[in-house]
């Protein structure tokens, strides 16, 4: 494919090729003083962000720079979008400037797909509404693979605000494609309609789901996407669905804790667990750069076996 729009579009060989490519890139730059490859010299990557981001935007910038591409960072705030310019006109403007790839984050589900119909370059979905965040799922799968050896039949528990989470959907789809067994745990009010059609088991009992699991992924409670009152209350949420040390210790020996960030410390995860020995949250960020290098490399280099 020319674009990376959804984790659900990836078949197992493609996803594994991408993760293997990330591993090769990690090896290629390990221990080097200059952590840069010349592969995308002369190519232009545009970060087109209509929604706030720390990790995804910076890691795509770093990934493109480490492949020697030129990078343009465009955020809707401070651009002519604030004067009413449409996504389509914005896309054509970027195309006229010779963008080879556009990395797009947008609050509307489907915006990157729409964009892919308007530009000649490659489009990468950096998170669209409540739909998908495929590179987050890829970096999570990469992190899980490094720690668990492989994903086949591994038990992964995803906990929290599934209703508003593009991370949850992308992870369920990709982890299932890679052979893992996924359980979703959430209060009934934070599960989307149709979740029973997702390739995952749904549970309301966090303690029971965590016993012997290989990994737990905590989701951010997205209060900015909740209109009006948030139910359950923050205190009830932490009691029923927050990860503390007691719950973390229900995991299998060497079980790991993930969170895509940004975290609500003290709500979905205690600071002690977030910063504890089994936490791979900081490593997820590091792996995000490597995995995004692999995505840009495979899409833009035109090399054999590309995405
Ligand atoms: N995980 C994630 O997408 O973080 P940002 O919103 O900071 O990019």
Describe the structure in your own words.
This protein is an alpha/beta fold and 307 residues long. It folds into 2 domains: 7-133 and 285-300, Rossmann fold (3-Layer(aba) Sandwich); 134-280, Aspartate/ornithine carbamoyltransferase (Rossmann fold). It is built from 11 helices and 9 strands. The chain has a 5-stranded parallel β-sheet. Strand 1 (44-49), helix 2 (55-66) and strand 2 form a beta-alpha-beta unit. Helix 1 (12-29) packs across helix 5 (134-148), helix 5 (134-148) crosses helix 6 (166-177) and helix 5 (134-148) crosses helix 11. The longest helix has 20 residues, at 281-300. The model has no long low-confidence stretch (mean pLDDT 93). Bound molecules: phosphoric acid mono(formamide)ester. Phosphoric acid mono(formamide)ester binds at residues 53-56, 127, 136, 260-262. Keywords: Pyrimidine biosynthesis, Transferase.
Strand order of the largest sheet: 7-6-5-8-9
Q: How many helical elements?
A: 11
CATH superfamily of the largest domain: Aspartate/ornithine carbamoyltransferase
Strand residues, percent: 5-15%
Percent in helix = 25-40%
Total number of β-strand segments?
9
Summarize the biggest pleated sheet: 5 strands, parallel
Bound molecules: phosphoric acid mono(formamide)ester
Mean pLDDT: 93
Assembly level = single chain
- Per the principal axes of the C-alpha atoms, what is the gross shape? globular
Number of domains: 2
Function: Catalyzes the condensation of carbamoyl phosphate and aspartate to form carbamoyl aspartate and inorganic phosphate, the committed step in the de novo pyrimidine nucleotide biosynthesis pathway.
InterPro entries: Asp/Orn_carbamoyltranf_P-bd (IPR006132), Asp/Orn_carbamoylTrfase (IPR006130), Asp/Orn_carbamoylTrfase_sf (IPR036901), Asp_carbamoyltransf (IPR002082), Asp_carbamoyltransf_Asp/Orn-bd (IPR006131)
Catalytic activity: carbamoyl phosphate + L-aspartate = N-carbamoyl-L-aspartate + phosphate + H(+)
Subunit structure: Heterododecamer (2C3:3R2) of six catalytic PyrB chains organized as two trimers (C3), and six regulatory PyrI chains organized as three dimers (R2).
């Amino acid at each position: 494919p020319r674009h990376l729009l959804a984790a659900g579009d990836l078949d197992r060989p493609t996803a594994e090729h991408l993760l293997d490519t990330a591993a090769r890139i990690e090896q290629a730059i390990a221990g080097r003083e200059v952590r840069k490859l010349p592969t995308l010299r002369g190519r232009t990557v545009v970060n087109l962000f209509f929604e706030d981001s720390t990790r995804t935007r910076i890691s795509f910038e770093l990934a493109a720079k480490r492949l020697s591409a030129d990078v343009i960072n465009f955020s809707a705030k401070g651009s002519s979008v604030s004067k009413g310019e449409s996504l389509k006109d914005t896309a054509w403007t970027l195309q006229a400037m010779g963008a080879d790839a556009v990395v797009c984050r947008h609050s509307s589900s489907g915006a990157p797909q729409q964009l892919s119909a308007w530009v000649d370059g490659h489009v990468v979905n950096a998170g669209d509404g409540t739909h998908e965040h495929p590179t987050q799922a890829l970096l999570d799968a990469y992190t899980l693979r490094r720690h668990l050896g492989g994903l086949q039949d591994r038990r992964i528990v995803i906990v929290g605000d599934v209703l508003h989470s593009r991370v949850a959907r992308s992870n369920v789809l990709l982890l299932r494609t890679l052979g893992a067994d996924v359980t979703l745990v959430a209060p009934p009010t934070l599960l989307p309609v149709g979740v029973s059609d997702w390739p995952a088991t749904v549970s309301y009992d966090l303690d029971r789901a965590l016993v012997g699991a290989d990994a737990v992924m905590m989701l951010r409670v997205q209060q900015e996407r909740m209109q009006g009152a948030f139910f359950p209350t923050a205190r009830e949420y932490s009691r029923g669905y927050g990860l503390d040390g007691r719950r973390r210790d229900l995991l299998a020996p060497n079980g790991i804790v993930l969170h895509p960030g940004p975290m609500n410390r003290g709500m979905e995860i205690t600071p002690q667990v977030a910063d504890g020995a089994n936490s791979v949250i900081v490593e997820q960020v590091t792996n995000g750069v490597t995995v995004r290098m692999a995505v840009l490399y495979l899409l833009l280099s035109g090399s054999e076996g590309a995405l």
